[in-house]
Amino acid sequence: MRFSHEWTYLVRGNKTPIAAGMCFTNEPMIVLPGEFGVRLEDDMYITPSGARYFSQPSPSIDQPFA
Questions:
Q1: What are phi and psi of 19, to 5 degrees?
Q2: How far apart are the C-alpha atoms of 1 and 39, rounded to whole Å?
């Protein structure tokens, strides 16, 4: 398994093929430098039929718990 904190990353321009068995995190964040930051982490794995989340993703940054 591959994790998003290692290559390959889900970023624009990355042409690496995504394959079944790979794992990634989607980590949207809001940061106010010197004040605070909030980051959500939604983990997913790739199956032959597409991405599946390990847990229910957050509906939005201001509703962090699904």
A1: -130, 155
A2: 24
Predicted local distance difference test score (pLDDT) of residue 5: 57
Per-residue pLDDT reduced to its tens digit, 15-33? 989 899 998 888 878 889 9
CA distances from 65 to 11, 19, 52, 60 (A): 25, 29, 18, 9
Beta bridge partners of 13: none
Listed in sequence order, the residues at least 6 apart from 45 whose beta carbon sits closer than 8 Å to its beta carbon are 1, 21, 22, 23, 24, 51, 52, 54
Given a cut of 70, whether residue 2 has pLDDT beyond it is: no
